[in-house]
Design goal:
The complex is a heterodimer of chains A (about 270) and B (about 180).
Chain A lengths: L1 H16 L4 H7 L4 H16 L7 H22 L7 H6 L5 H15 L2 H5 L8 H14 L3 H26 L4 H18 L5 H26 L4 H27 L15
Helix pairs in contact in A: 1-3, 4-6, 4-8, 9-10, 9-11, 10-12, 11-12
Chain B lengths: L8 H12 L3 H23 L2 H18 L7 H22 L6 H9 L11 H9 L3 H12 L4 H8 L3 H21 L2
Helix pairs in contact in B: 1-2, 2-3, 2-4, 2-7, 3-4, 4-8, 5-6, 7-9, 8-9
The chains are: A mainly alpha (about 270), B mainly alpha (about 180).
Chain lengths: ~270, ~180
């Protein structure tokens, strides 16, 4: 009997994981429903608990510690040539422990993530900034927080693009693409996850951001080489197209634009 | 209750293979994917955010130190490292004669009684978990917090899938009694 209950409980848990409701699962075993229901409810409530969030300092210093450990391991193995900025940071065994210690010290002393927050593509700490952002995003459980973060990231990419042009003169095409991608994800991935009353507020914010992004791109256009202007024009067109879609969605009460594969309408 | 996974099996295998060569990009990608999972697991095992942060970092350092010898499934292997670190953590605390931190959590939980399963809080779950045996605790956290399947849990605990099902049943039944006693 007990074994049967164990099996039924496990079966229901698996079915619920596949998307069935608790009530649907209990209908399969009506004579055991009273025993299974409280157990399934407890399981469900544990699964619905918000996930604990570590501090970004801990995420960052953990990454530094791991990089340091990998450098020591590499030293034991054989020297290898770095391929990326992260490799450059951690691949030279002789100076890495000192560098990592220094970085940890600097970060602990001056507020951890602040140092990388100002980094730009091509800077030593830029990949760490992106990883910290991604971890922060995956650790944020609620859809509104995720949506706000996505907007923040899109804005950061825009600021980085402007800074890069002012500092280095040329247009960073990869960064421009990255910026457009963040804004696209903010619309396509995040808007649809929000509870209905919040979607319009979010779309309005996103719409303002989109206009701001387009305005900045128009300003940048005059600063870049003539050969790069075509790329900027394409980006401006993307912003314009996105604006049109958002306006239509807001006006018609449709919350999901259909401009890519797998999209659907939601009223 | 759907299982979330950022990497499919093939992508994960490819990343792990690169990580075995100590490729920093692959290690960073594994860190990004697994940090939240390992942190949640350790958080519910030790009940203290700062200890959980330290032990999570230690888990990834251990991962780097032993990844070249890693065989079989990666995820259960990594959770096993985390589990061993939690056991060491408690061992050290008991040697030093320190009060288990879980008692602090119990005090917080006492002031916030459980009204229904829907109102369950992290502290109340922590309180319930503290009253379970170690293996039952592990099954609850791995299955319902980390969303692992029975096969993965069995591998972490070194038990059969049938034994995991039995532990799961007993753990949920115990939690039901605990929550009923302290409504």
């Amino acid at each position: 009997m007990k074994n049967d209950l164990q099996t039924m409980l496990d079966h229901c848990l698996e079915e619920m994981r596949r998307g069935k409701s608790l009530e649907e699962c209990l209908q399969e075993f009506p004579q055991w429903a009273s025993q299974l229901k409280p157990l399934l409810r407890i399981a469900q409530s544990i699964e619905h608990l918000p996930r604990p969030e570590p501090s970004s300092e801990a995420v960052f210093s953990g990454l530094i510690q791991m990089g340091r450990a990998s450098a020591l391991q590499r030293k034991e193995k054989a020297p290898r040539r770095g391929r990326s900025v992260l490799n450059a940071l951690f691949s030279k065994p002789a100076f890495v422990p000192a560098l990592a210690t220094a970085i940890v010290f600097i970060f602990i002393s001056f507020g951890t993530v602040m140092l990388s927050a100002g980094s730009l593509p091509g800077d030593l700490l830029y990949p760490l900034k992106l990883i910290t952002e991604r971890v922060q995003y995956s650790l944020t459980a609620n859809p509104e927080g995720k949506a706000e973060l996505r907007l923040t990231f899109a804005d950061k990419r825009l600021q980085e693009l402007v800074k890069t042009i002012n500092k280095r003169g040329g247009l960073d095409r990869a960064l421009l693409k990255f910026m457009l991608k963040e804004a696209q994800l903010a619309l396509e991935d995040n808007a649809v996850l929000l509870p209905k009353p919040r979607v319009l507020i979010y779309l309005t914010k996103l719409s303002y951001f989109n206009d701001y992004q387009r305005e900045i791109l128009e300003q940048i256009r005059s600063q870049v080489n003539p050969s790069e202007r075509e790329t900027i024009d394409t980006a401006i067109r993307v912003c314009h197209q996105r604006r049109q879609w958002m306006r239509k969605m807001t006006r018609e009460g449709m919350l999901r634009p259909c401009w890519g594969p797998g999209c659907y309408w939601m009223r | 209750m759907k299982k979330e996974s950022k990497l499919d099996h093939r992508e994960l295998t490819a990343l792990v293979e690169k990580a075995k060569q100590l490729d920093v990009d692959a290690l960073a990608a594994l860190y990004e994917v697994f940090y939240p999972k390992i942190y949640s697991y350790i958080y519910y095992r030790v009940g203290h955010p700062e200890d959980a942060e330290d032990l999570t970092s230690d888990t990834f350092v251990r991962m780097v130190e032993s990844i070249r010898k890693q065989k079989r499934a990666f995820s259960p292997w990594l959770f096993r490292i985390a589990s061993n670190l939690v056991i060491d953590h408690y061992r050290k605390r008991s040697v030093r004669g320190e009060t288990p931190l879980t008692e602090e959590v119990l005090q917080i939980a006492d002031s916030a009684p459980l009204e229904s399963e829907k109102d369950l809080t992290k502290e109340q779950l922590q309180k319930g978990l503290n009253q379970l045996g170690e293996e039952q605790q592990q099954v609850i956290v791995l299955k319902f917090i980390n969303n692992l399947d029975n096969r993965e849990i069995a591998e972490i605990l070194g038990k059969s899938v049938g034994a995991v099902k039995a532990l799961q049943f007993r753990a949920l039944s115990s939690l039901r009694e605990i929550f009923a006693e302290d409504p």
